[in-house]
Amino acid sequence: MVTVLLCAHNLLIRTGLRKVLEDDAYIHVAAETGSADEAVELARRHQPDVVFVELDMPRGEGLRIGRMLTGTGDRPAGVVFIAQSFDSTTALRGLLAGARAFLAKSDTPRQLVAAVHAVAGGYTVLPSAVTAALEPWAMLSTAFAAPGAADVFGLLTERELEVLRLMATGMSNAEIAEFLSLGEATVKSHVSRLLSKLGLRNRSQAVARAYGTGLMGVPARAAQ
């Protein structure tokens, strides 16, 4: 039996997902919520195999849920993001937040059920629309390749690396601050320090370095 947690701001979406998934005799929807904080508590309580997260939730809540739940419990759940559509930035942010699968709200019930079983079985589900959206990032990674340069990231703290990865998805300081639950001034300080440590002048150079040295290698591989 695959245990599922549903996280969506829209009650109609949660109700629809529950009906579709529970039509499968091997799927049990243990709980549902529209709150990021409650999602973490429910995940601890029910230890789900798969968590469905509405990526379009207000204030970036969907990404925050994904990021929190991939590190929750003795065995982190497989996060499935469902959204209206995926552009390159949204897909990349989803992967960085720990997504194991992406589904469109227009997908069929059969596709939803198949994705649950695939993720529960340890597989990653990247539809063609998502891999196509990630293609520009893969091309950028190749264009700025610089063998051996990745060693310089050893100068950065874990938090600075995290900020750099989020910068590379196109997030502003304000968005990074919200995503990491930090003050915007703190994020600005991290950005300033990492630029100084890397000997770079601006964010654009930092993003190019991140892609060119493989720091963003997971999305690039996913797009192949």
Automatic annotation (TrEMBL):
Response regulatory domain boundaries: 3-120
SMART domains the record matches: HTH_LUXR, REC
Protein name per UniProt: DNA binding regulatory protein
Domain HTH luxR-type intervals: 149-214
Lineage: superkingdom: Bacteria
GO BP terms: phosphorelay signal transduction system; regulation of DNA-templated transcription
Signal peptide span: none
Keywords for this protein: DNA-binding, Phosphoprotein, Transcription, Transcription regulation
GO molecular function, one term: DNA binding
Cross-referenced InterPro entries: CheY-like_superfamily, NreC/VraR/RcsB-like_REC, Sig_transdc_resp-reg_C-effctor, Sig_transdc_resp-reg_receiver, Tscrpt_reg_LuxR_C, WalR-like
Record flagged with keyword Cell cycle: no
